[in-house]
Amino acid sequence: MSSMAVSHHDEFKAAKALGISHLKLGMWLFIASEVMFFGGLIAAFLNFKLNVPTDEIQLLDVALVGVNTFILLTSSFTVVLGLDALRQDKPQRLAFFLGMTILLGVVFLGGQAYEFSQLAQQGVTLSSSVFGSSFYTLTSFHGMHVLIGVLWALRNLLGTLRGKYGAESVEGIELFGLYWHFVDIVWIVLFTLIYLI
Amino acid sequence: MEATAETSAGRGNWRRYLRWSTDHKVIGIQYLVTTFIFFLLGGLLAMLVRAELLQPGMDVLDGVQYNRVMTNHGSVMIFLWVIPVLAGFGNYLVPLMIGARDMAFPRLNALSYWIFLAGGLLMMGSFFVGAADAGWTAYVPLSILAPDGETVWAVAVILLGASSTMGGINFLTTVLTMRTEGMTIWRLPLFVWGMMATSLLVVLSTPVLTAGLFLVALDRLLGTVFFDAAMQGDPILFQNIFWFYSHPAVYIMILPAMGIISEVFPVFSRKPIFGYKMIALSSMAISVLGLTVWAHHMFTSGMDPRLRVPYMVTSMVIAVPTGVKIFSWLATIWDGRIRFSTPMLFALGFISMFLIGGITGIFLAAIPFDIHVHDTYFIVAHLHFVLFGGSVFGIYAGLYYWFPKITGRMFDEKLGKVHFLMTFVGTNLSYLPMFLVGILGMPRRVADYAPEFTQLNQLATLGAIILAFSTLPFLYNAIVSWAKGAQAEANPWRALTLEWSTSSPPPEHNFPTPPVVRGGPYDYGEKPAEALPAAAPASD
Q1: Is residue B126 in some structural domain?
Q2: Among A188, B153, B180, B191, which residue has the fewest nearby CB atoms (within 10 Å)?
Q3: Residues of B in contact with A40 (CB under 8 A)
Q4: Do B105 and A4 touch (CB under 8 A)?
């Protein structure tokens, strides 16, 4: 997203009424639209969960996914630590924490891939039932978001190593942080709805 | 001055309209011209529909062809004409009206246009693989069983939705962060308010449609069973998802048009707008309420009957903010010094035509009446009065009103009046008979009909022919005037909104120096109105 914007309108910055940059506002609005997209998929999943009870739910490996959830939450924590380091003008530490975030994100995706393969072996597939359809669609759509976040973090890591960020230029990392936390929060909702209740 | 006008109008430099450009005015013109071409194509499809319906029996098209033509007529008019043409107005005007140099995200803006174009070409291209034929509503299971063209259609609509969502984010961010000094929230022109309300709906509802069509595409391509009733899939789920977007889409298509005519009335009546805040807030109210009414499209779908009543109530409540607007417009022109120029004629036409569409909407919100006329031509008449009599009249009003600003040339007023007359007569002749034939029981979306409906259908086809020909004086006027009309001054209508305080067409980056706003956009008649500047260039 950050590359989409051009900040050649400096003289208008005085007019900012919200005390928030256009990039961040744009990011929040993008997140709002994403909430609605996920909302559509979640509605589909819940519709089937309520109206078409199935035993397939017993096949879900709550312990495995619980660990995976913990890993993803930790990755949000590393983003916060990285941002904090950057604000203290320590881009080296930011690079370290971005690396951690990428690692944790990749482990999460690996866990999801393992979970999918286990379920597939037990006969739960995209077309085996409405549970399979809605489960895989929702979780892999979230997984795609994690993947995009990992790639974005990788881009930020390269930028950090090239000296692009410092205490005076944190917005690029803040925008990534907004996105990454959003993806995490969505997972908390999904974990609760799919695995816990 | 002359030189700026030439470069900005792009004369001799027209190729930049065919290329990637991040200038909001270039993108605005790209949208306006492209969407009008799609409008003509959608009109051509409508003429095929009306030709088939000229008499009972199958004459021009066979059943499958008819379904394809009807489906794409609706899809083109909604996704490739009314929604994006209003985004075109927004692109050209919002930065000018708030005194900004450009949109908040110029590159995202360009990307929106090109994704829109790709989606549009894909939708039209689907005719080569057997176009979609499940109606613009793409109800399952029909849209799952339909041939390959339906997949292309779904991908096209997903692209168009992405383009639209990016635009919505861009408009909201632009208005909230890019206003010039003195442009407070309560000094925003009402068109900008309309774009804000619309963009809010776009951001919140379009992704849901995209999600729905994503599921349809998965069912078609990857063998998921979301909508396969044999596998306990749920067709009603699709209807809920679809209408969660597609009813708000109606407001997405009307709120900016209401904004346009809210600009036109005060200028051509030389009076302050009546109820500025009420008009602005009613746009936001329609936007929020609009998210709560979708299931009134589903009264006959087998939904829980207890849910019908709340949807009936919310649907009827929307008439209140709409009524607030209509009475405010009437109070604005009341006792004004009215100039019946072409933009004003279309704006007045909007009120009467939209009123017919709106009032019948209240009929339809009533459950018993809706059940009676569901899926008949009554609905077709209602939606065309809203979308053609409302949105398209508003669009024409805007095209004439801002023609001098956009092209730097004046249009021919006489041809404009001929165009209005043909459009007004054609609209009523096309769509009024559809109310009658609908109440008599003629079903919609069917290529054939019982012989007793023939006369009314012939009237409708006659009206459609007049509408088709009505585009000729407009096209001739637009093309010839753009090429060699009289030079337009900066402010030919003596309007007070900011876009008129810069040259016609505006220079690159719009204003030589950022304007400072010192008054409201509609302060007519308070001082010697014609001389009152709403904005002055910053002194240093």
Answers
A1: yes
A2: A188
A3: 207-208, 210-212, 241, 244
A4: yes
> Which residues span the domain enclosing B97?
2-534
Two tokens, residue B138: 């793409």
Chain B closest CA to A125's CA: distance in Å?
9
Residue-wise pLDDT for B25-68, tens only, equals 999 999 999 999 999 999 999 999 999 999 999 999 999 999 99
Residue B516 included in any domain: yes
Distance CA B315, CA B365 (A): 6
pLDDT of B535 > 90? The answer is no
**Residue B130 pLDDT class (50, 70, 90 cuts):** confident
What are residue B376's DSSP bridge partners? B443
Say whether pLDDT at B538 is over 60: no
B496 three-state secondary structure: coil
B280, B252 contact by CB (below 8 A):
no
Stretch 3-62 of chain A: residues touching chain B, C-beta under 8 Å? 3-6, 8-9, 11-12, 14-18, 20-22, 25-26, 29-30, 32-34, 36-37, 39-41, 43-44, 47-48, 51-52
Q: Give the separation between CA B137 and CA B212, rounded to whole angstroms.
A: 11
Amino acid (one-letter) located at B20: W
Nearest to B226 among A5, A30, A134 (CB): A134
* Domain annotation covers residue B539: no
The verdict on a CB contact (< 8 Å) between B223 and A134 is no
Q: Is B376 helix (H, G, I), strand (E, B) or coil?
A: strand
Best residue of A9, A145, A175, A179 to probe chain B, by most B CBs closer than 10 Å: A9
Helices (H), B178-234: 190-221
DSSP output for B93-130? HHHHHTT-SS-S-HHHHHHHHHHHHHHHHHHHHGGGG-
Question: What domains are defined for chain A?
Answer: 22-49+60-196 (1.20.120.80)
- Is B98:B498 a contact under the CB 8 Å cutoff? yes
Between CA B174 and CA B184 the distance in angstroms is: 14
Q: Is residue B302 classed as helix, strand or coil in its secondary structure?
A: coil
Total structural domains within chain B: 1
- CA–CA separation, A46 vs A26, rounded Å? 30
Say if the Cβ atoms of B177 and A48 lie within 8 Å: no
Verify whether the Cβ–Cβ distance A40 to B211 is below 8 Å. yes
Interface test with B, best of A38, A128, A130 (most B CBs within 10 A): A130
Is the distance from CB of B249 to CB of B205 less than 8 angstroms? Answer: yes
Of A5, A40, A52, Cβ closest to residue B232:
A52
Residue B484 and residue B75 in contact, taking contact as beta carbons nearer than 8 Å: no
Least CB-CB distance to A44: which of B183, B226, B231? B226
Tell me if B357 sits within 8 A of B390, measured CB to CB: yes
CA proximity to A87, closest of A43, A79, B305, B61:
A79
User: Nearest 10 degrees: CA dihedral of A4, A8, A13, A14?
Assistant: -170
Give the domain CATH number at B344. 1.20.210.10
In A, minimum Cα distance to B227 occurs at: A130
Instruction: Give the largest Cα separation in chain B, rounded.
Output: 75
* pLDDT digit string (tens) for chain A, length 197 residues: 333 333 334 444 444 556 789 999 999 999 999 999 999 999 999 999 999 999 999 999 999 999 999 999 999 999 999 999 999 999 999 999 999 999 999 999 999 999 999 999 999 999 999 999 999 999 999 999 999 999 999 999 999 999 999 988 999 999 999 999 999 999 999 999 999 98
Chain A to chain B Cβ contacts (< 8 Å): 142
Closest chain B residue by Cα to residue A53 = B232
First CA to last CA distance, chain A: 35
Question: Cβ neighbours of residue A108 under 8 Å, at least 6 residues apart?
Answer: A68, A71, A72, A75, A146
**Nearest residue, CB atoms, B177 vs list A16, A43, A130:** A16
